C-alpha cells in the first residue's frame, strides 16, 4: 500500500498530511480537523516517520491541537480539493488502513468506498446499511452518516435505490444542521429517475427543511404532499409529515389550515374521532381565523392518513388543539391538561416534550411549559441533536417570556440564536430575534429592540412567519410606549389587535391588547380601546395567560377613567400578587399612581409610584423606571437613582457591552455573545464613553472594576 509519489521527505509530509486531513473531513464534514492518531497511523502506512508532523507544522501547513490535527495558516496548494484524483484515492486507502482494527466500521467502509470508482454494489450496500444502523442507534454523527449514505449512492447502480440513499443522506444532513448540503442532495435525488413512491421521503425532508429555513407556505404544501405519498407505505412518516404540516400552518397564522391538517388523521374513536370530523364552526374560535385557503389545498390537508396506533399523548394533543381552535376552549383544555399528568405526560422524546410544553401554554400553565421545554433542551443536548437544540431554546425562551422572567428569556434566546445560526435555521433565528426585541422593550434598550425587530421582520416577511412578525411589531410598539410615545404605539398596535386583514397572529395578538388599550386611551382613542377590551375579556375568560386577569382589570380602569377606577386598579394589583411578575405589577402601579395624582391625591400617588419604581428596578425595566420617576416628580417627590455609581447612567444593554469590554472581548466577540451586529456594539461603545466620560477601553475597564455600582 503506497501513498502519493515520493519526493523529499519534508516536502512529502507537507503534501500528504493536509491531504489526509481533507480526506477525513470528507468522511465527517462536521469535524474541525482530523484525529491526530488516525492521521499519524495513515502517514506511517505511507512510510513517513515521526519527523513528518514536525516538518509539516514548521512549514505552517498543519497545526496539532491536543488530539486533533488541523490545517495550518499556510496550507497553500496542499489541499484535498486541489489534489489529483489518484492522490485523493491513495489518501483514502491509507486512511482505510488506519481503521482496519475493525472497532470503527463506518470510517473503514467510507474510505474503502472513496478509494474506488464506478458501481460497487456490495461495498455500497455495506456502507449504507452500517450508516443507517449507527444513525438509528445514535452511535455516529449525522454529518458522518450523511457523507456515508451519499457515497453509497454514488456507488449504487439501481436508480431507485440510489435515489432513496440520496434522500436518506439529505435527511442526515438536515439533522446535522447543514440545510444547503441537504438541498443539494435532494436536487441530486430529483435528477435521478425513480418510481413515484420515492417522492414521499424526499418531500418530507424538503418540507422539514423549509419549515426551519424557508417559506413556510411551501413547507406546508410539501409536507401535505409527503403525507399523501407516504400514507400507504410508511404511515409513521406520513404522521410525522402531517404533524409538521400542522406546525407550518401555525407559523403562517393559518388556523383553518391547522384544523384541516388535524382532520387528515384517521378517526381514532372516542373523543378524538367526532372532534376530528367536525367541520370548522361558522363563528370565530377564541381568536379570529384567517380566510380559508384554496379548496384544493384544504381538501388535500383533510385527506385521512391511516397511521399506526398513536400514543395517548398524541391523541390528547390533537383532540385538545382541535377543540381550542374551533372555539371550544373549555372542551380542549381537558385533554391538553392530561398531557401534563404522570399517566399521559411525555417521556424523554424532545418532540413529545415540546408538544406538552405547547399544551401547557394553551391551558395557561407557564411554569409547566418552562419546565417541559427546559427538559426538551437538556435531552436534545445530551443526545447530540444539535438541529433540535435551537428549537427547544426558542420554546423555552418564549415560555420564560410569558412567565415574566425576562432575564432568563434573554439568556435562552441569545443561546438559541447562536444555535440557529450554526445549524442554518433562519426561521427559528427570526423567532429568537423577536423574543429578544420583546425583552429589550422591557429593559428600555431602544437600539436593541430596533435591531432585533428588524432582523425578525426581514425573515418573517420573506418566509411568512406571522407569529414572529406579530411579536416584533408588539416589541416596537412597547418600546414606543416605554418612552411615552403613545400615539406611535397605538398606531403600530391598532392593526395587530383589530379584526381586519392586517391583524396579528391568532395565538398572540391578544397578548398585545393591554399595551394597545394603554396607548389608545392615553392618545385619545378611547372608543377603539373599549372595543379591544370587550374582545380581550372573552379571551381572558379562557384562562390562557396567568397575567391576563390583572391586565384586564387595569384595562377596564383605563377605559373607565372615573372615580370608579380605583377598585379596578385595586383588583388588578390583587391579581398581580397572585400571578407574580414585577413588570406587569409595575405598569399597573405606574398607571394607578398617575391616576391618583390627577385626582389631586399626591400623598397616595407617591406611595404607589414608589412601589412601581421598585418593581421596575427589580426587573431591569429602565425606561419604565424613568417614566415612574417623572410621575414622582410631578407628585412632588424627587426620585433619585436607588443604586449610586457611574453605571446607573447606562442602559442594561450598554452595561452588558461594558462588562464584556472589561473582560477583554473584541467588538466582534461581543456582537456574537449578545447576538447583535459589530456596528451596534460600536454604537453602544461610543455612547458608553460619552456617558462615563472615558476615552479608551482601558479606562472603561477601570470603571467597571472599581465603579460598578450596578451589580
Can you walk me through this structure?
This protein has helices at residues 9-27, 36-45, 51-58, 85-98, 105-114, 121-136, 142-154, 159-175, 179-190, 199-213, 216-230, 235-252, 255-263, 272-277, 295-302, 312-325, 329-338, 350-362, 366-382, 386-402, 406-422, 426-443, 446-463, 466-482, 486-497, 513-522, 526-540, 548-560, 565-579, 582-598, 602-618, 622-634, 652-662, 667-674, 678-692, 697-706, and strands at 34-35, 62-65, 68-71. The chain is mostly helical. It has a three-stranded antiparallel sheet with strand order 1-3-2. Helix 26 packs antiparallel against helix 27, helix 30 (582-598) packs antiparallel against helix 31 and helix 33 (652-662) packs across helix 36. The longest helix is centred in the N-terminal third of the chain and has 19 residues, at 9-27. It is globular, with a radius of gyration of 30 Å.
Tags for this model:
711 residues; mainly alpha; 3 strands; 68% helix
Gyration radius from CA atoms, angstroms: 30 Å
Structural class: mainly alpha
Q: How much β-strand is present in the residues? A: under 5%
Q: Which of globular, elongated, flat, extended, rod-shaped describes the shape?
A: globular
CA(first)-CA(last) distance: 65 Å
